[in-house]
Write a structure and sequence with these properties.
The protein is α/β, with parallel strands linked by helices. It is 42% helix and 20% strand. Helix 3 crosses helix 4 (66-92).
Length: 470
């Protein structure tokens, strides 16, 4: 419903709540972390007291098994809350420095201040984790938040709105559900900060909306994360890690190994071992099992089905349109112009491509957009160093997949087309606050030479004494 001026009633209500959030942040004691810890504890209780309902919602939306849903959604959030509560006091403490120079003495203090009211727009692939992970950092830094979950994970979004409403006051946390039109209206409000996770297309829209109002923004986007396996490191453990990382959450992970490039000499063995591992993980008839998830919505299902046609199905390939499920699939013989080589897959398809010359492969990958992460499995120090130096990405992971992104000790974020800005752990505290410098001049008298009019020899004196003056 809209008013006579053409502004929706919802937008008016959101604007009022947003102003309450800004007032709450402005009136709080920025340097006292006690209230922030209390809010983090409330969020921890929300997760723990409603674990069953949350896991059930994730199953309804994405078909996630209880174990996978807990490990990839709830556990990482609880770990992040614990980390923040341990580190917050030390991080929030103002940092003091004294400066003594020729003719001057001063003290600077750097304080961390919250921005205010923050909009978090989250995606459907990890609808709980990616909605609340930025919120943990924002609350720890002293802010209030609106959360706009994805409409393509409706059960989780509805439950999240109910739980947040029961555990938090709207001037601290508020959930707004709806489609793209709702997101568009939210973007018109004067936020102090916007945090977006999702596609490059929507990320561009968010970035433009923020730029119009000079709102700081973090974009966590996707990318085609290359996974290179050279001839020095083909083991069962290596294949296990890659298969697990690829098909976790039915392949709908922005940090999944997108395409695997395997040295020609071990290519047949890798394919055979990958198939064996898929069978061990998911059984001979995975569409009949509850161990794999499903595509979040019809459009995503159709996109992945189309990708199946762009190469030879080495293993898997069966689909169930009714349940939106696709078997874990190994794809080979992909032609150079296939879109699957340039578009993020975001589904349970593992393209495996042989290579013979590492330098040539790296040059081909350099022509693609920067990914969130580059994976390499190798024991060759020269190969490792070469790839790490030549390929740009938000992260570089050696001999493992996924795990770099779940530790609060490691910041997470992209570069270039995969996004900008970082969060998790201390990086979240830095992202969701701004530094304020307090400068105090300690000398009671002026140095007259710093003021005009300047004399003919003053420039030479400045050159001579620069190191002791500045």
């Amino acid at each position: 419903m809209r008013t006579k001026a053409g502004v929706s009633d919802n937008k008016i209500n959101w604007s009022i709540i947003q102003q309450h959030q800004k007032t709450r942040v402005a009136d709080s004691n920025h340097l006292n972390p006690t209230e922030r810890k209390q809010l983090l504890e409330v969020l921890r209780l929300l997760l723990m007291e409603n674990e069953s309902e949350l896991l059930n919602a994730l199953y309804k939306d994405l078909g996630k098994s209880l174990e996978e849903a807990y490990a990839s959604e709830l556990a990482v959030l609880l770990q992040e809350i614990d980390f923040m509560k341990r580190r917050l006091n030390n991080w929030q403490r103002p940092k003091h420095k004294r400066h003594i120079k020729l003719g001057s003495m001063s003290k600077t203090t750097v304080e961390h201040h919250p921005y205010g009211s923050i909009l978090v727009i989250s995606p459907w692939n990890y609808p709980l984790q990616l909605a609340l992970m930025p919120v943990i950092g924002a609350l720890a830094a002293g802010n209030s938040c609106f959360i706009k979950p994805s409409e393509f994970a409706p059960e989780t979004a509805k439950l999240l709105a109910n739980l947040i409403g029961a555990y938090f006051s709207p001037d601290v946390l508020m959930v707004v559900n709806g489609d793209a039109a709702v997101a568009t209206e939210l973007l018109e409000l004067p936020w102090d900060f916007i945090f977006f996770t999702g596609s490059k297309k929507v990320g561009t829209i968010v970035h433009r909306a923020a730029a119009k109002k000079q709102i700081p923004v973090v974009l966590e986007l996707g990318g085609k994360n290359p996974c290179i396996v050279d001839e020095t490191n083909l083991t069962r453990a290596v294949v296990q890690r890659i298969v697990w990382g690829k098909f976790l959450n039915a392949g709908q992970s922005c940090i999944a190994p997108d395409t695997v490039y395997v040295h020609q000499t071990i290519y047949p063995q890798f394919l055979q071992m990958a198939v064996e591992q898929i069978k061990q993980f998911y059984g001979l008839h995975p569409l009949e099992e509850e161990t794999i998830g499903r595509m979040a919505h019809e459009k995503q299902f159709e996109k992945i089905v189309d990708f199946l046609k762009q190469g030879s199905i080495y293993y898997g390939g069966k689909t169930d349109a009714t349940k939106k499920r696709i078997e874990p699939t190994v794809l080979t013989d992909i032609t150079a112009r296939s879109s699957i080589l340039y578009e993020e897959i975001f589904g349970p398809i593992l393209p495996v491509i042989p290579y013979t010359n590492l330098s040539k492969l790296v040059n081909e990958l350099k022509r693609m957009d920067d990914p969130l992460v580059t994976y390499i499995f190798s024991k060759n120090k020269r190969n490792i160093g070469y790839i790490k130096t030549k390929l740009r990405s938000g992260a570089f992971s050696l001999n493992q997949v996924i795990l770099h992104a779940i530790s609060s000790d490691s910041s997470f974020g992209g570069v270039g087309a995969s996004g900008f800005g970082r969060y998790h752990g201390s990086a979240s505290l830095a992202t969701f606050s701004y530094e304020r410098t307090i400068y105090t001049h300690l000398l009671p008298f002026n140095i007259q030479k710093q003021y005009p009019p300047y004399q003919s020899n003053d420039l030479n004196l400045l050159r001579k004494w620069r190191r002791w003056l500045f």
